[in-house]
Amino acid sequence: MIQFNALLKKELKEAFRDKRALMYALMMAFMAPVMIYAVSNSMIKDLTDTPAIYVNIQGGEAAPKLMALLEDEKILPLAEVTADEKRLWQERNIELILPESFAEDMREGRMVDVILRADYQDKSLFSPLRRIKEVIRSYSATIGSQRLLVRGIDVRLMQPVKLQEQDTAEPTSGPMLIILSLGMYLMMAAFVSGLSVAIDSSAGERERNVLEMLLCQPVDTMKIVLAKLSCASFIAVIGVILTLVLTYFAIGFVDLSKIGATFNLDFISVSALLLLLLPLCFFASALQLFFAFGAKSFKEAQSTVTMVVMLPAFVPFVLSFINNKPQWLDWAPISGQSMLIEDIFKGLPVNWSQVGFTTLVTVVLTVVLVKVMAEKLKSEKVVLALS
Questions:
Q1: Cβ(255)–Cβ(275) under 8 Å?
Q2: pLDDT in tens, the chain (387 residues)
Q3: C-alpha angle with apex 26: 263 to 29, nearest 5 degrees?
Q4: Rounded to whole angstroms, how far apart are CA atoms 23 and 374?
Q5: Which residues of 345-363 are buried (b: 16+ CB within 10 A; e: fewer)?
Q6: CB neighbours (10 Å) of residue 28?
């Protein structure tokens, strides 16, 4: 125990000695709240605001009622655009072409072809095009209903089945983008915060010949690995807690009521989050140490471990495309934590059995990694980067 305490003290001293590196390591904790605040406000603005859309309308004089309806929805002719936004809307080049026979076709009850021309792959046009299509479809449905009424036909005959949608989601599950972002940032903090310490205490010490000198001492390799793991994990835990606390306060400044959503974390939810994230900090640090010890140089360790850091972002992204997830994903590290954190932020009841099993699997894999590293450090090929 005395040897382990001495090793841990040595690792902590080296970790906290470089204040600038430590500040960069914990940068995720300060960047996440800013990013979530900016993304949340941008999302709410897109969902609630209806800014003016300027369209190059041809043949609008033949459809005054449609033009009035478009104007009510702030869809205006390109000629009315302000000087500041003129170049922007000219580049977007949305065209709405109405035939010259629009009025005559309407009187005769013929179908009218209205052309909406734009770059449908341009993401900035998704919202404007959706609003234009909704107005035209609404106008078309209104005209169709009026034609049926004139002929003495009940318009309800055209809709024999009416679907009543009832949303059973909790109010906290409304801001899905915020939920997914926050869960990803929390797991990223577990992987990023202890990254520099893990690389420096493994590949860095080997290049400085510190690791070789340390192994020459009568110290068990298991204690050396545990000391390095504890130090890197401690920094990761600090990063996770800071990210969670600062983000909670940052979301308090976001007016979620505009989209009918709420965000609240009680003691039980916070406890579940910590039970999920703390073992993940140790698993992340163990994984980083494992790959860093296996690298032949400090540069190779940086490249390899950087790929490991992408796991908390890559795994949830892949899960979002899987409709029928295999059962084992609920228990695997990263994927299990990702799904459970998402459920917690949605306000769903905490599945404690799944939390316990996922935590157990994460701890077991961490122990396996530690034992493998302790055995590998007994080999000169690993210590001297000969293999």
A1: no
A2: 777 778 777 777 777 777 777 777 777 777 777 777 777 677 666 666 678 889 999 988 888 888 999 998 888 888 888 777 878 888 888 999 999 888 888 888 888 889 999 998 888 788 889 999 999 999 998 888 888 888 888 777 777 777 777 656 555 544 555 666 777 888 888 898 888 888 888 888 888 888 777 777 788 888 888 999 999 999 999 988 988 888 777 777 776 666 556 666 677 888 888 889 999 999 999 999 998 888 877 888 888 888 888 888 888 878 877 777 788 888 888 888 888 888 887 777 888 888 889 999 999 999 999 999 888 888 776 666 655
A3: 10
A4: 30
A5: bbbeebbeebbeebbebbe
A6: 22
Rounded-to-integer distance, Cα 199 and Cα 165, Å? 53
Q: Where are the beta strands (DSSP E) in 59-109?
A: 75-77, 95-97
Here the tokens at position 93 are 């080049």
* Residue 175 DSSP label: -
- Among 172, 150, 135, which residue's Cα sits nearest to residue 251? 172
For residues 305 and 195, the answer to whether their CB atoms sit within 8 Å is yes
Domain ranges of the chain: 2-45+170-384, 52-158
Q: Provide the CA 185 distance to its chain's centre, in angstroms.
A: 7
CA torsion sign, 5 to 6 to 7 to 9? positive
| Pairing label, strands 115-117, 95-97 | antiparallel
Q: What is the pTM of this model?
A: 0.71
Nearest to 56 by CA among 144, 112, 132: 132
How far is the C-alpha of 52 from the C-alpha of 266, rounded, in Å? 41
Euclidean distance between CA atoms 189 and 341, whole angstroms:
14
Sheet containing 115-117, strands listed edge to edge, beginning at the edge strand earlier in sequence = 75-77, 53-58, 95-97, 115-117
Q: Which residue type occupies 228?
A: K
